[in-house]
Amino acid sequence: MSSIPMDALVYGRGFIPTDSMFRYAGNFPRTHAQHKANPEDFIVEEKPKRGYATTVSTKSDFPCREELDAGKGRYIAFTLVLLKMTTSAGVKAVASALGVEPSKITVAGNKDRTARTSQMAVVEIDDLDLVRRNSFPDENILRRHGWFIKDVRRTDASLSKGQLAGNRFHIKLLVPGMDKAALSAYLDVRLKHLLAVFDDKGNVPYIPNFFGRQRLGRRQNLLGVGHTLIHEGLEAGIKRFLCEAVEQNDHWMATKLRRQLLPMWEDAENLAAKNGGAVAEQYYSFMDMREAMEVLVPDPNDRERDRSRRRKVPMYRPANMYIEHTLAEGVAKCKDFKHLIENNRSVRDDVSLWVGAYQSYWANQVLGRLLDGDIPRTMLEVGEHDGELMIPLYFSGDPKSVKFYQQVCPEAIPHHIDPVVEKLFLTNFRNKRGPRRPAFINVNDLEYSVHDGEVRFKFLLRSGAYATNFLSLLFDLDAEVLGASA
Q: What is the domain extent for residue 128?
């Protein structure tokens, strides 16, 4: 029976079994380091499985224009560069500029909000000229609006999760009070330990592949949202996602909005009980929610003018409530939670992250027990192609996954799964197995330079791995509020 502490459900505490993680890293004392002091200190550049790696530069990533013009197909690809913006928010902004639904734009992964990031995106639209007219790779545009697109070309297919080789990171950590010599000595002994743990893997660190806290969203409550969704269904999960205020982790505007949304949702519940309909059918309540999020406020990114003269933007944008706005808008239109998710790919992908937070929590607990020797390595699956040790994510539609958790972590198995949620998110109709995650990963192409009071890292991680987990093996990172997964 699934049993998760309340602190984990609301605040994400214990999401990563840090004691197990630090023992693996040698239990060295860790000095404090600040990361993401500035978004430019955390750069993430996506490396697709095919084609050129993306960069955050305003310059083209293609050697020549002829390669861009040579693309064929009914879809249009481009590089999306974001600053302090989640992938979901960036997709919604681009969709608005192009006049298409966000579900028409696909990506291969979600990027961190508190960063400068680049990734490939594909839009299902035929008008190449329209997309190119909206391509403005310019620093001023990026800082003013949080995004730009570049390298627009035709392609023959949309994107989906898993079509991503990895991400290249450029990260600056601030370590006040330590000079270059002290920092060099500090890092040498810790990296030497990590390099020696699995010396048969070559001269790269080989580290446990925990899911990062980015999986839990800005409020750090997506584990709780996913738990509610799985046990109680779409209505309860969406209500919690929209309305639960976690003030200590959220933007103050978001907290203010959530406290307005809750009584609106309760009005919908009361009307449904009174009239005998469903909550989702009370579309006026959801229109009220949408309108509350669309109240205009001064744009905090418009720093060229004083506050009274700044341009106005809908409140949900600086509050980073793009997904919440999409949900309220979608329910108001179709009046049915299940219909919205089945017919809107971007909404389905967003909601699947809540289920993913639940799966990630238990995969992390399994990995912690593996590091501590409580679970033998022989219990893990071995990858068919590369021999990697793999941890199944809990997936009720996969008998091998269910059997694995029955044997090594029975508390991960929910005592009840809502049948609609199970059908939408935990059933594979193609008769394939559920998702797996490598237990360990390599930190590739590692470079670092040490200076007085700071360290600058460059490295490449495979898709789904978290840079902050690697850095946490070396430093005590400052507490942070995290956005979407990198």
A: 50-162
Residue after which a domain boundary falls, among 134, 162, 190: 162
Tell me how many domains the chain contains. Answer: 2
Establish if 218 belongs to a structural domain.
no
β-pairing, 32-35 vs 476-477, is: parallel
Domain boundary among 162, 180, 212: 162
Q: Quick one: angle between helices 252-275 and 322-334, nearest 10?
A: 20
- How many CB atoms within 10 Å of residue 214? 24
| Phi and psi at residue 10, to the nearest 5° | -95, -40
Length of the chain: 486
Residue from 472, 481, 480, 453 nearest 174 by CA = 453
Question: Is 135 within the bounds of a domain?
Answer: yes
- Read off the pTM: 0.92
pLDDT by residue (tens digit) across 272-327?
A: 999 999 999 999 999 999 999 999 999 887 766 666 777 899 999 999 999 999 99
Residue found under tokens 């030497």: 192
391-425 tens-digit pLDDT = 999 999 999 999 999 999 999 999 999 999 999 99
Q: In this structure, what are the phi and psi dihedrals at residue 140, rounded to the nearest 5 degrees?
A: -65, -40
Instruction: Please say whether the beta carbons of 375 and 366 come within 8 A.
Output: yes
Q: Rounded to whole angstroms, what are the CA distances from 387 to 129, 317, 379, 383, 430?
A: 46, 45, 14, 5, 25
Coil vs helix vs strand at 82: strand
**HEC-encoded secondary structure of 189-258:** HHHHHHHHHCHHHCCCCEEECCCCHHHHCCCCCHHHHHHHHHHHCHHHHHHHHHHCCCCCCCCHHHHHHH
Count, in order, helices (H) and strands (E) of the chain.
17, 17
Q: Please give the DSSP secondary-structure letter assigned to residue 284.
A: H
Neighbour-count burial of 447, counting CB atoms closer than 10 A to its CB (0-12 exposed, 13-18 middle, 19+ buried) = exposed
